[in-house]
Amino acid sequence: MLLDYLPVLLQLAIAIGFAAIALSLSVILGKSGRSVGEKDNAYECGMLPIGDGAPRFSVKFYLVAMLFVIFDIEVVFMYPWAVQFKELVKQSVIPIISMGGFALVLLFAYLYAFGKGALSWNK
């Protein structure tokens, strides 16, 4: 049984060995860069950089983006069901019940997010 995993273990050992050797050789043979103040500045079309590099965003933006992705992925799961709806209904009522349960879970998740204030911009 363990003999079946030998090719996988051998490939893993070769990959780790290659990575270790490549990194070691780059440290040994490569040049170390010197820190020069003028060259370490960010280049912005010939202008000196002023202020922070990236503005700060509220966590609400990321929260709404994650909620959008979550609910969008759930709709992607509904699409194949909707395409095959006529054929599924001819066979039995179970697909309708299962999709109703799926939609009910989505509704509870939406109500939970709404109740927690995840969709409110004023807080």
Protein described:
With 123 residues, the protein is mainly alpha-helical. It has a domain at 59-115. The protein has four helices and no strands. The N and C termini lie far apart (59 Å). The relative contact order is 0.06.
Spell out the key features of this protein.
single chain, 123 residues, mainly alpha, 4 helices, flat
Please specify the SSE layout and strand pairing.
Elements: H1 6-29, H2 59-83, H3 85-91, H4 94-115
Helix pairs in contact: 2-4
Q: What would you say about this model in short?
A:
With 123 residues, the protein is mainly alpha-helical. The protein has helices at residues 6-29, 59-83, 85-91, 94-115.
Low-confidence stretches: none
* Tally of alpha and pi helices: 4
List the secondary-structure elements in sequence, H or E. HHHH
Distance between the termini: 59 Å
How does the helix and strand content classify structurally? mainly alpha
Approximate helicity band: 55-70%
Strand content: under 5%
The oligomeric status of these chains comes to single chain
**Silhouette:** flat
- Biggest sheet architecture: none
